[in-house]
Each structure stands twice: as C-alpha cells, then as structure tokens.
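hiii so my PI (J.) wants the whole complex modelled not just the main chain, which honestly fair. so below is everything: two entries, each one labled with what it is. i double checked the lines twice but i was tired so who knows lol
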Amino acid sequence: MKYTPVIGLEVHVELKTKSKMFCECSADYFGKEPNSHTCPTCLGLPGALPVPNKTAIDWCVMIAQSLNCEINEFSKFDRKNYFYPDLPKGYQISQYDLPFGKNGEVSLSSGKTIGITRVHMEEDTGKLTHQEMGGVKTSLIDYNRSGVPLVEIVTEPDFNNAKDVVAYLQMLRTIVRYLDVSNADMEKGDMRLEPNISLTTDVSKLPPYKVEVKNINSFKFVDKAIVFELKRQEEILESGQIPPQETRGWNEIKNATFSQRVKEEANDYRYFPEPDIPPIKFTKEQISNLKSKVPELQVEKITRFVKQFSLSSYDAELLTRERALADYFEQTVAQGIEKNISAKQIANTIINKKIDHTTISPEKLVSNIAESSQIKSLDESELQTIIDKVLQDNQKAVKDYKSGKESVIMFLVGQCMKAIGRKVDVNAVKEHLVQSLK
Amino acid sequence: MNNLTIKDAREKLTKKEISSVELTKHYLTIVKTYNEKLNAFLTISEKEALEQAESADKRIGEGDSTPLLGIPLALKDIYVTKGIKTTAASKVLEEYIPQYDGTAVMLLKNAGAVILGKTNLDAWAHGSSGENSDFGPTKNPYNTAFVPGGSSSGSPVTVASEMALAASGTDTGGSIRLPASFCNVVGLKPTYGRVSRYGVIAMSSSLDSIGHFTKTVEDNAMYLQVTAGSDPHDATTPPVAVPNYTKNIAKGVKGLRIGVPKEYFIEGLDPRIKKMIEDALKVYEKLGAEIIEVSLPHTSYAIEVYYIVQTAEVSSNLARYDGIRFGKDRSHFGDEAKRRIMLGTYVLSAGYYDAFYKKAMQVRTLLKQDFDKAFKTVDVIIAPVSPTIPWKLGDKADDPLAMYLSDIFTVHANLVGVPGLAIPVGFIDSLPVGMQIFGPHFSEEKLYQVGFAYEAVNPVWKERPNL
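here's the output for the full assembly
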C-alpha cells in the first residue's frame, strides 16, 4: 500500500467510584430503575451546584501517571457548552486547556511507542432511548448515568495499524483494572472507543482530513472499523479525491462504518473556566503520594517475573493479565518454597490446568502440586542404584525375564517400589527396569 | 409594631409579649394591604408561614432563642423553595415548583424563621430597577412613581414598607446594595462564598453573592449569623470560621483607617450624593476614624469587565432552561435575558474569547490587586452606592446602557469578591440615599462595626415611608 495509515485514539473510561463526579448519588447505575439515582445536581435543576469527587480526581491522576504523563500542578474544570437533551445543564463539565495529565507515552510489545496527548476528567451524560409509547414516538431520558465520572484519554496520531491499536487498548484496560479504578466492562459501556483514521503519502505531515469513528464498544469492532476505513479511504484517494472530514458510526451487522455528520468546521463549545469549582492545585508531595499508590503494572510485572522466576515472557504475560492472578501466582510461589516446588512448576500448573484462582487457595494448589510431583521427584541415579540392587538380589527372575517370561517384570517393579519406600511414578520405574534389563 | 426590628421582635417573642403566629399574621395583613400597590411579593406562602410560626412558638416555649426564631421574612424569588413556586420573575419558570430547598433556605428554616413568601425581581436578576420583571415592576415605597432599584426589587421594599422584618436577596453586580440604598434599608453583599449559593438560581456563578436586607445593621448581623458558613454543596464556600457578628458590633471606629477612593467621586456622581457621603465621613472623623484618600486605579474598567464576565456566565447558566424538563421553552425569555445570552455567547465564541473573556479575566486580576493594595493602608473603604438617586419608572427602560451604568460603583466588589455593606445616609428629593462600606474578604464583622457606629449617630432608617 502506498499510503501510510495515521490513527489516533480517544478513549472514555468510566470510573467505579461510589458516588458520581459532582454529587452524592450512587455511580453504580447499570441496570437500575431509570432516574432512581438522581438529585438536583445531576438533574441540572435550577440552583444546584457541582462539588467535585476527590477520589475520582485522584484516580484520574493515577491513570495519567500510569501512562507516564506529566501532572499539572495547577488545573481546573471548564464548561463545554452544547445543547443535547441528555445533557441537563446545557454544558458538560470537562477540562479544556489544563487537563490533569499531559505528554505521556506508552510502549507496546510490538516495540511501537504511542504518545499520550492528555488525560482529563469529565462527567457522563444521561441516556436517551427512543421508543413508541401508546402509538406515539417518544424519547425517554434516564439521568442515572448523568454525572458519572469519565476519564478521557487521548493519544497522538501515532498508530499505523489496527493491531497496535488493539494492543494499546488491551494495555489500557489492564492498567485501569490493575489500578482498580474501573471495571472496564465493555458490555456495560465502561470503555468507549473513538479512533480517528486517515491515510497519507507523506508521513512528515498530517493528512488534510480526519475521519472519526464514534462510540465503539469492543476491541474487535475497533479492529474491524479501522480495517474497513483504511480500505474505504484508500479507494477514495485512488480515485483522486480526498475523503471528507466527518464523523462516522460503526454498524456491527453490516460490518461497515457509516456517515453520521460531516464537519464543516470545528464545533464551537465556548469553553470557559467552570466558575462553580475553584481551580485544583496539587503540591509535588500530593502528586508523588498518588504516584506511590500506583501498583506495579503489567509491563513491569512481566519483566520482573521473567527475571525473578525464570519464566518465558509468554507465560509471564499470561500470568499478569489480571492483577489478582499475578498476586495468586506469587502467593503460591511463596508457599511452594518450603516444599521445594519451583515457580516454573507453579506457572505451568496454573497455565496448563487453567487453575481458577478464585476457588483454589495457594496452599491447596501447592499441596496438589507437591503430591503429583513427588511421583516424579525420584532422582535418576538413586533409582538406578536401587534397580541394580534388585536385579542383583533376584537373579532368577532376571533369567526368567530374559528367557521370555515378560510377566515377571511386575514382580521386579514391586521389589523396586518396596526398596524405594515411597510413592513414586510406577511407569517411570518400569521404564528404567526395562532399560536395565536390555 | 412600627419600626420593629428583628432585635426588638426577638425580645418580645422571648418575653412572650407576642407570639410568632401573631407577628406573622400582623405582617401578612400588611402584605395584603400594600402588596397590590407595591408589587413586592410574587407569591405569598401564608399557610406554610403560619405552620412555621406555630412550630417557632413551640420552640420559643421550650426556651430556644436562636437569632431568627419566629421572625417573618421574605425571600427573593430566585431562592428555590421546596413545594413553593419559584419563578426568578421569568415567564419561563412561571409555574415551576422546586423539589428541594437551597442551603440558605434550609438554614433559615432550621433556625425557625418564618417565610412569608417570595419577592419580585428583575427576571433572572438581570437589571438595576426591578422593571425587567415579567410580572410587573416593584414600586418604591417612598414614591411609587420611582424605581426601588434592582435586581432584588421586592425584598428591600418588603422591609422598607414593613411587610416583613427582613428579606433575602442576591447581589451579582449591586443587586442588594443598590435597592437597599434606594429603599432606605441596610443591605449586605457578603464576601463571595460566605453564604452558600446552593439552591439559589444562578445568574453569574463567579459573581453571585447571597445577602440580606434589614432595617438596621445589627439586624443584618443577626441574619448573616444564620446563613453564613461553608457548605458541602457549594465548592466555592471555603472553611473560614464564622465569627459572632453581633458580639463586638458596638466596638466603635476609633483609630479606624477609612479609605476614600478618588475614582468613585467622579463626574456623573450627583453632587448632592457626594456631599452626603462627605458628611458621613465627617461623622466618622468625629468618632475617631482617620480618613485617607486611596486609589483603585482600574475602577473605570470594572463595568466593562463585569458585562463580559457576567453575560458569559449568564449565557451558560440559562442553557438548561430549554423547556424539555421544566418551565417553558426559550421563546419565553424576556428581552434582557435574550440580550445577555447573545452578548455572553458572543464573548465566549472562538475567535473572540481572547479579545473579550480572557482579557476581562486579566483585568479582573488587576481589579483585585487594586483592592489588595488599598487594604494594605486602610481598614475599610467608603463609597457611594449609586451615582444617582432613584429614577422614575420607565426613565431608563429603553436604554439598556444607561441602566448598566447605574451599577458603576457596585460591580467592582463582585468582580473582586470583597464584601460591601450598604447603609442609609439620608434623603434627596424625599428619596433615599445610601453609602457602601467595603472591607477585605471575610471582614463582615468589621463592616458591621463601621455601619453600626454611623447608624447610632444618624439613624436614617427610622424614616419610614408614608404609604
């Protein structure tokens, strides 16, 4: 392909704080009775005011820190003014020029580095449903989601292919789960993905257009949407035209993107500083305190597991996809030391036997492994010495065997087992015996 | 009962000379007698008021004596009140009944105050005369052909005409101090953030101050005692301790340094008002204060900055009144609201933001520095409230710019966030005149002391209108 894809990504992550971003209503809205999690503030009633949720701000900063962002010591909220029926105040409280985090970067396993433009905090909107009621087309608004904390993470247009985009998304999802700040449940809309896609022949500058695909809720669809768009745009470019700057949606039934609105020019959101919320100032100490709360993330864990436990990076990756599993692995390793069970053995067991870490305790797993490994843990030279002695002591049986009476082998195995005096793998003993008798 | 103050009424209630129910009935009678003439109340909540009075009497019987217990008050109809219509004097909210009480209302209710009803205002608090109300203008009780000042037009009139013992208002650019001075009552615009804005319909969020009208300075201190304080529902109310405002109110002004800003005594200021303020300063000098000329050099920019910041915030704050969930649609906005929405939208628009909003915010910082600097050499600053005496209804109604200029001496304090106390100083052409006392942030206690000292020498407030 003579064109190079230029892809950037905006991801909205819904936080799992107890209360909403600017009021005390429960943020756990999924599947709840419509408009049961509301108050004057998240309904935007006359006179109501927002009070920011400190936990949400801390978590946003920690997400930014996990993406290696600089944290603004002075930041603020801004009003993004636009009209939509699901936006009760007529503006969304967001962050404009001073997001909590900026200028980060992450490295993908492919070796690609992706720049993080900004990480900022905002509030979610209500949810519209359109249905017929008594024969009348009606739009219903559920404000349970209104004001739920959202973190928006924007990358530089650094991606060149869909594979890296998916790898980045997996990494991001793992990070927010490691931080324990979002369930990142795609089905529930905890992560909403918006790639912007274009093609260029000159990688030194950005293309003269950009196509945004809005609100995709699965990594698979992002992958498909990007592949689809690259092909669609290439065809347009090949015909000598420039694809229009537009916002498109993803139709998962047709497996295709479709035009939603063509942007003549940028929206004018008339951003201005949110006067209801004083600016937020962090001391260097507060920032480093939050940083110290960021746990060891997957990337670092993989490196350490490979080094500390002599695991393959493939196994380390599998074991660290979930923080709970990685912790389980390490707890089991600690338990296994006493019983001489290696980290490698534990890793293999967990991976190959698909151990469910929520049902089997580390202690139990260790003793299971110990039991099965005792069978194999017979030293080879020790076994040979015993076999040699048994053969020496049972000359007649050896003679019988060699003359064709092969059933006598079981007698010899029995003699060996008695001499070993503990539970070992009978087949291994038999194999060795047969070898020795040749 | 004539010229009864909160302080007097509290004494009578405590001594059981009168019950809160009797007091409430007395004021309701006056309301019914004069409201048609003055148009001060938009809603009279008689039933609820009598219930509140009854429960206040019960508390009084149990020995409770909190400052506003059993005291009949009125609220500007921009304070949301649970179950009681709240209109902001706009047709848009003509039938809107809120589901909750704001913080100030809740504090007043908890303190046992009796809420007689909701008072008229310029719709959405946009105006300086009360004439922008969608439900007709309020009249000045000293001469009903004249404006009472605005935007809190009804509240000071209820106090001046003795329809209520006190009333609440809001001050975004002078909306308490101007009508207080036009109606011969005391009006405080507290420090920004001293009283919670939660549950008060927002006009301009960075400027709105929640304050009160009373007959006397001491009454005002008693009122603020109930409403002041940090509120978990308002992120702009810092945890600054609330002093006892009345304890040292009679401390006097000996040794006090009073600043007089030369930029406020300019051409356009009615020379009779100027003379009156100068006379007041002489009173202070006699009482032992030192009068010092100060400069607030950026004063002349304040009105421009104000009309950029304020309209920008108004345009955003009024966006929620889209007719989807409550109220009527946007076509019901009056001319002044539409004017401000358009101005505010313009100054925030891409390409104009830097030239208007951003520049205005930079000048706002300079205005703050003016005050900071002045308060290094003086304790308080005294200035006129309005360049003119009250004007005739209709005189400025067709000239928005002339109306905006009546705020010329008041907007400064809102942009800076400092408190301003307006107190009566006299009459010109039988119409009231006031002066305002500014102090540093959270210096309300000091302002009350300064106001109290003058009032003791010259109790202008006792001159009640002849209805």
